Amino acid sequence: MKKQLIFSLVTILISCSITIGYVELNKKKVAFIRTEYLIQKYKGYQDLEKKILLERNRYPNSNNNDTLAQKASAEILNNNQTLVQGVLNQINDFIKKYSEDHGYTFVFGTTNDGTLLFGNKEVDITEDVLEELNTEYSGK
């Protein structure tokens, strides 16, 4: 009898804890962003892609044994990686600001490796973020 009473009390406490946790989670504002789509449609990234293509076309293809060409190619690649990282940092900084301004507790990003397996369209803020991100970029 005593064990059954203790078991019942523990069960009630666990149920209350789960309920309180669920209620607290429901108070949070949660959303997700389709990350790859956002990057591809961001005007800043599109402009960067054009710039990288122009840079690549400046140097004609030459013999792979040409060390000067290899050095230039490596320099261009390194520079491009730095530029791409800069654009990704701009996007991440914007998402952080957007999330804070709109009261989000969590904003998840979808990736090709399945980090977010499902998200209801009601909490997909990709288009809203993209519109404001592109507006900010165009205003610079």
List keywords for this structure.
single chain, 140 residues, two-stranded parallel sheet, 69% helix, elongated
- Return Rg in Å: 25 Å
Strand content: 5-15%
Mean pLDDT: 79
CA distance, first residue to last residue: 73 Å
User: How does the overall form come out from the CA principal axes?
Assistant: elongated
Number of E strands: 2
Number of helices: 5
Structural class: mainly alpha
Order of helices and strands: HEHHHEH
Largest sheet: 2 strands, parallel
Into which percent range does the helicity of residues fall?
55-70%
Oligomeric state of the chains present here: single chain
Side by side, the strands of the main sheet go 1-2
Low-confidence stretches: none
Give the topology.
Layout: H1 2-27, E1 30-34, H2 35-41, H3 43-58, H4 67-101, E2 106-110, H5 126-138
Parallel strand pairs: 1-2
Helix pairs in contact: 2-5, 3-4
